[in-house]
Amino acid sequence: AQSVAQPEDQVNVAEGNPLTVKCTYSVSGNPYLFWYVQYPNRGLQFLLKYITGDNLVKGSYGFEAEFNKSQTSFHLKKPSALVSDSALYFCAVRDRRYSSASKIIFGSGTRLSIRP
Amino acid sequence: SAVISQKPSRDICQRGTSLTIQCQVDSQVTMMFWYRQQPGQSLTLIATANQGSEATYESGFVIDKFPISRPNLTFSTLTVSNMSPEDSSIYLCSVDWDRAYNEQFFGPGTRLTVL
User: Fold this and answer.
1) Which tens digit of pLDDT belongs to each residue from A61-81?
2) Residues of B numbered 4-63 whose beta carbons fall under 8 angstroms of chain A's beta carbons: which are they?
3) What string of DSSP letters covers B13-63?
């Protein structure tokens, strides 16, 4: 069975500092991995994905994520946080074996708060 | 990417009534999904809707409570029936963007409050 864990309910970072939002996953086969962001009163916006190839993937708004197969992790990172990055972030996984026939499983979400 | 709209964007409803939420996509897609996001919670998949077949419901969700229609490849509706305050949530539709390695794109959501 697929599962995603986001161990931190909230991450607080000062503006200009690097940020990391943690995610670990469990799937039977190889995963598709995703990060989504949800701003207040908005739907989910796709940030980035890992499909195959380079373990470091770059996405929107200067975010990047590193796929680590041995640690089954896909942590979201940004070198320099902005106040506007404050939002709710979801990690998600899909089992590659079933492609579009499989569900996307979402983590519990991490609220990122960037203080000026 | 797909552009997805939902109607209504929000509503306040009385207990025991029903609300139908519409989801419109700007291009034809095979699979559409309906999620529920309860206050402060993650997303939970309600059902998967393919055009021309009955929706597939996840454990804990039943057709009588959440009937779904999928009349064509660009449109779907979700009805929340006989509502109670526990149904107060954000309801989101999403689509598989088949040409782009299976990420899903989401509509803006419908914020439902049941009194």
Assistant:
1) 999 999 999 999 999 999 999
2) 30-31, 41-43, 45, 48
3) E-TT--EEEEEEESS--SEEEEEEE-TT--EEEEEEEETTS--EEPTT--T
